[in-house]
Amino acid sequence: MALEVNGKTYETDEEGYLINLGDWDEDIAKVLAVEEKIDMTENHWEVINFLREYYNDFQIAPAVRVLTKAIGKKLGPEKGSSKYLYELFPYGPAKQACKIAGLPKPTGCI
Amino acid sequence: MAVSKFEVPELKGYTVIPLVRMDAAAGIKSFPANAPIQEAIGFPGELPENWQEIAIAKMGELLGKYRSLQVFMDACVHCGACTDKCHYYIGTADPKNMPVARQDLMRRVYRRYFTFAGKYFPQLVGAKDLTRDVLDEWYQYYYQCSECRRCSVYCPYGIDTAEITMAGREILDSVGLGQKYTNEILGKVHRIGNNLGLPGPALMDTLSGLEEDVEADTGVAVKFPIDVKGAEVLLITPSADFFSEPHVESLIGYAKVFHAAGISWTLSSMASEAGNFGMFIGSYDQLKKVALRIRQAALELGVKRIVVGECGHAWRVAYSFWNTLIGVGAGGQDEYARMLQKQLDSNYPQPAHICEVTYDLLQRGAIRVDKEANDHRIITFHDSCNVARGSGMGGIPGGQFIIPREIIKSVANHFYDMAPETIREGTYCCGGGGGLLTDDLMELRVKGAQPRMDALQAVVENHGVNFMATICAICKAQFTKVVPYYGFEMGMIGGVHQLVSSAIILDPNK
After folding, report:
1. Residues B90-118: what's their mean pLDDT?
2. Of B491, B496, B479, B488, which is closest to residue B459 (Cα–Cα)?
3. What CATH number has the domain bearing residue B344?
4. In this structure, what CATH number is given to the domain that contains residue A40?
5. Nearest C-alpha of chain B: how many angstroms from A77?
6. Which structural domain, as residue segments, surrounds residue B313?
7. Which residues of B touch A (CB under 8 A)?
8. How far is CA B201 from CA A55, B65, B192, B217, B300, in A?
9. Is residue A105 part of a domain?
10. Quick check: B209 and A82 CB within 8 A?
């Protein structure tokens, strides 16, 4: 599969995840978000940016607890919950937010 | 309610067997694995030219190796007892999801190439050539079986469809037709150590975060040790326990149990996965390779006991196969298996399920609980298929049903079982087991959950149940995802040790 952004074509897998992590930029994220029917707000970007930073350090998306704690610190404790993350990304923060962040899909019994 | 592109079954509170709808699930197919995924675990990357020859030879090999498979191919009398027992048939109404039909996909090919009548008079005995269409149909319907073995409970001959599905998948893999979800994960286990692909540093970061959380929550410094040489217990748990909600709540529960009982324990970055997807694809080589990581970790760390966390098929593999696979328990004959047998403490069951450990501590009064801490919960228990029908616990008949329920009743005041035909050995699969917990099979997963959802609905209505406990990472992930389709809250799904975690008393002075 492929994704077209600003006249350029980017390779994605069967489920729409970017194949080359280096391809990612904010414009691509916006297009991916539209496909996921997510209206990106500042808080969405906070999550996406944290995911990318964490991935950069650890080569994996953060565990849900790690993510909620980090978001709670940035956006206030009432937003540091998986419930809030599901409000932002209804299909699940791990899979849906990773897709928009251009990261590989976490696999396993999740 | 979640938005779906398919019709979500309507719940009635009891199971209704649907009228047959031909090809109702014909459009549901999981993504096949690409060549790099296949090759990474030793399978061909694409269909070879002589695939038919290879597949039939593989089938012959399996028939010779597994006498059960030979018996299952011959013994079926088409009595129909299994036809209404599969959750995927009940949910989809596709007759090819009737267990006998799933078996017959292979049986008719078996007859064609391995029986006298089928070789010479194929039409008379319903024998069929292995064509490309048949192969594709195998892929489709062998990946619509969660290998839960419910049908085998009702088969008068004891035919186990799961074993036929496993053989089917093994033959498919031998000609390069693998499933992306399962085989990609197997590659990750070999490369990184767990299904999620959590590298050691991420694991350590996650665990130190949990230590902070639990201390902030309870005021007690509960540890989550990793790679500690000389610890008594090595805990092998699904990697989802590190990563996901509600799984992590049970991991916190195990840590609190070890803390309160004063048992030294450790996790391992080398063996950071309990799940063993080798079983899902019927590959003994993969099964063994995944399990060997655990032996290596146990030997290197010098532990005396191996305990398995809440993971359904992991417990089946551990309970039923670890002895000969790696030497946890008697049976393994190679040098390292014997070394491990000597190292492990024979005063304890090897391996032990975390529920056995907790139950024993509760019985002896070695850990104490405040049951009222769970008073806001009205609880039911979902028996996970691989625990229910593929293992035991506590060395007593039905221990795998009794022990988790006794733990729940020890740590909480409100417990109600679901309808008797839907629990214990007759339990319905969650709908996501056996390698089907993948997003591309969401329709199948939602529909396959229907019988369990009907039974849940009944206890929700009759008893106000607001929490369904289970002891399997797949069940937890699957239910969390699908219950919203049926109008339930995802937060009502959790682990048995999540309940233990809420009730356990950590301060010895209280």
Report:
1. 98
2. B488
3. 1.20.1050
4. 1.10.10.370
5. 13
6. 193-355
7. 2, 31, 180-181, 184-185, 188, 194-199, 201-202, 205-206, 209-210, 213, 238-240, 242-245, 247-248, 275, 311, 437, 439-440, 473-474, 476-477, 481, 490-491
8. 12, 42, 11, 24, 19
9. no
10. no
Q: Cβ contact (<8 Å) for A108 and B238?
A: yes
Partner-chain contact B185 A106, CB within 8 Å: no
Query: What is the rounded CA–CA span in Å between residue B414 and residue B107?
Result: 48
Would residue A98 show up in a list of annotated catalytic residues for this protein? no
pLDDT tens track for B261-303: 999 999 999 999 999 999 999 999 999 999 999 999 999 999 9
Helix axis angle for B200-218 and A64-75, nearest 10°, is: 60
Pairing of strands A2-5, A8-11: antiparallel
Determine contact: A95 vs chain B, CB below 8 A.
yes
A16 min Cα distance to partner chain B (Å): 12
Number of domains in chain A: 1
| Percentage of chain B lying above the pLDDT 70 cut | 99
Domain-located, residue B20: no
| Shared-domain flag, residues B477 and B439 | yes
Of the pLDDT bands very low, low, confident and very high (cuts 50, 70, 90), residue B4 is low
The reported pLDDT for the residue numbered A61 is 95
Instruction: Please tell me the least confidently modeled range out of B84-93, B312-321, B326-335.
Output: B326-335
HEC string of B257-314 equals HHHHHCCCEEECCCCCCCCCCCCCCCCHHHHHHHHHHHHHHHHHHCCCEEEECCCHHH
Tell me the angle at which helices B132-142 and B161-174 cross, rounded to the nearest 10 degrees: 130
Report H helices in B346-449: 354-363, 385-390, 399-411, 442-448
Place of tokens 């849940």: B456
- Give the closest-approach CA distance of B244 to chain A in angstroms: 6
How far apart are the CA of A26 and the nearest CA of chain B, in angstroms? 25
Picking from A86, A94, A109, the nearest residue to B473 by CB comes out as: A109
Q: How many helices (H) and strands (E) does chain B have?
A: 24, 7
Q: Report whether B287 contacts B278 (CB < 8 A).
A: yes
In contact, B253 and B259? CB cutoff 8 Å: no
Specify the number of domains making up chain B: 3
Same domain, B205 and B351: yes
**What pLDDT sits at residue B507?**
83
| ipTM reported for the complex surpasses 0.85 | yes
Of A84-88, A90-94, B135-139, least confident by mean pLDDT is A90-94
The mean predicted confidence, pLDDT, of chain B is: 96
In a domain, A96, yes or no: yes
User: Domain containing A63: what range?
Assistant: 2-100
Residues in chain A: 110
pTM, to two decimals:
0.97
Cα distances (Å, whole numbers) of residue B214 to B207, B217, B361, B503: 11, 5, 21, 14
B488-497 residue pLDDT tens? 999 999 999 9
| CB spacing of A82 vs B439 below 8 angstroms | no
Establish if B25 belongs to a structural domain.
no
- On whether residue A110 sits in a domain, the answer given is no
For residues B24 and B93, the answer to whether their CB atoms sit within 8 Å is: yes
Nearest CA in chain A to B201: A58
Determine the Cα–Cα distance for residues A87 and B121; give it in Å rounded to an integer.
Answer: 62
Q: How far is CA B108 from CA B54, B125, B441, in A?
A: 18, 8, 27
